[in-house]
From TrEMBL:
Protein name: Cellulose synthase/poly-beta-1,6-N-acetylglucosamine synthase-like glycosyltransferase
Species whose genome carries this gene: Aquimarina brevivitae
Location of the Glycosyltransferase 2-like domain: 6-132
Lineage: superkingdom: Bacteria
Entry-linked InterPro entries: Glyco_trans_2-like, Nucleotide-diphossugar_trans
Transmembrane regions: 240-259, 265-283, 290-310
Coiled-coil zones: none
Gene3D superfamilies: Spore Coat Polysaccharide Biosynthesis Protein SpsA, Chain A
């Protein structure tokens, strides 16, 4: 199959991010034609004027629609796209020069209907963005299930950097109405239909992620709420590793209690773990300050995800509540 790529980019009130993303696309070294589809999801601060400035340099289609969430906006964009292979991005990413070259080379050698690529922090990112990126992608915190190949099971691509064939899109119906969590849900449904997913190491993006501690906490808390819902929908995909942040919190509380009773020797284990993260972050970015921020990011991530995961398990798995009724804000 001759590949014709269409980038699918939903955006909500982030014109500056769209401008930076389009700038990175202009710098790509891919010589063939490709399409960019931008879907404005009911924004009040839209990207129309930004898109107009790039029309003479890039092949862009721009659509404005009412707010229905990122999953439905991606589906809308894919129905409008002219290509036969969709490259789905978040608006807060930047592309390396060789992104499309790497994607095309991989698909021509080992075609797959759905893939995901890694993410990293660009040198221009803030210290906070770098610390959060490390926390979200390190094997020491997530086991590599976000932004890197999951060695503990089949790879679940994430929609900030996902490839999806036109065939697989129409066969699956695309993204569901849950958010976040619409991307692993789609990957699992694709598996059930007989489609494989793959990790494409060369298709790296630079992902800015959330820009404040509060926004980061809200994001990871929602991730924690969503996972038990996905486990209820797809029980065969549940893994013990999803419990790690919650178990970290619970065991740490017990360690504090035991320390108060004189059994303090367990606490240093947590200190050693956090020290390893501090050193890892400091070495990666050559900054002890970022190393300390990595520790804060990991604690925020574990607390936000862990409490959300426990709460959702209580209502969804134990009480058997309907997810949409219990957590309506997770659905569009």
């Amino acid at each position: 199959m001759k590949l014709h790529f269409s980038f699918i980019i939903p955006v909500f009130n982030r014109p500056q991010e769209v401008e930076e993303l389009l700038d990175s696309m202009l710098a790509m070294n891919y010589q063939k034609e490709y399409e960019i589809v931008i879907i404005e999801d009911g924004s009040t601060a839209d990207s129309r004027s930004v898109v107009e400035r790039y029309r003479g340099q890039l092949n862009i289609s721009y659509y404005y629609k009412e707010n229905t969430g990122p999953g439905d906006s991606r589906n809308y964009g894919m129905t409008k796209a002219k290509g036969n292979y969709f490259l789905i991005l978040d608006s807060d990413v930047l592309l390396p020069k060789n992104y499309l070259v790497e994607v095309e080379k991989f698909l021509e050698q080992a075609f797959v209907h759905c893939f995901g690529g890694p993410d990293d922090a660009h040198a221009s990112f803030t210290d906070l963005q770098k610390a959060i990126s490390y926390s979200m992608t390190s094997y020491l915190t997530t086991g590599g299930i976000r932004g890197k190949k999951n060695t503990l099971g089949k790879f679940q691509p994430r929609s900030f950097n996902m490839g999806l064939s036109k065939e697989a899109f129409y066969a699956s119906g695309g993204f569901g109405d849950i958010h976040p969590g619409e991307d692993p849900d789609l990957a699992i449904r694709l598996w059930k239909l007989g489609y494989d997913t793959a990790f494409l190491p060369g298709a790296k993006v630079f992902h800015k992620r959330r820009i404040s501690w509060q926004k980061f906490y809200q994001q990871v808390h929602k991730f924690g709420l969503v996972r038990p819902i996905l486990n209820a929908w797809h029980p065969h995909t549940a893994k013990v590793t999803y419990w790690f942040p919650s178990l970290f919190l619970i065991s740490f509380l017990f360690a504090l209690v035991f320390a108060g009773l004189g059994f303090w020797y367990v606490l240093p284990i947590y200190g050693i773990y956090l020290l390893i993260l501090l050193v890892g972050g400091a070495l990666k970015y050559n900054s002890i300050g970022i190393g300390y921020m990595v520790v804060i990011a990991v604690l925020v991530q574990f607390y936000g995800y862990g409490t959300g995961f426990l709460k959702s398990n209580y209502y969804i798995q134990l009480l058997k509540r309907d997810p949409k009724s219990q957590f309506p804000k997770l659905f569009f």
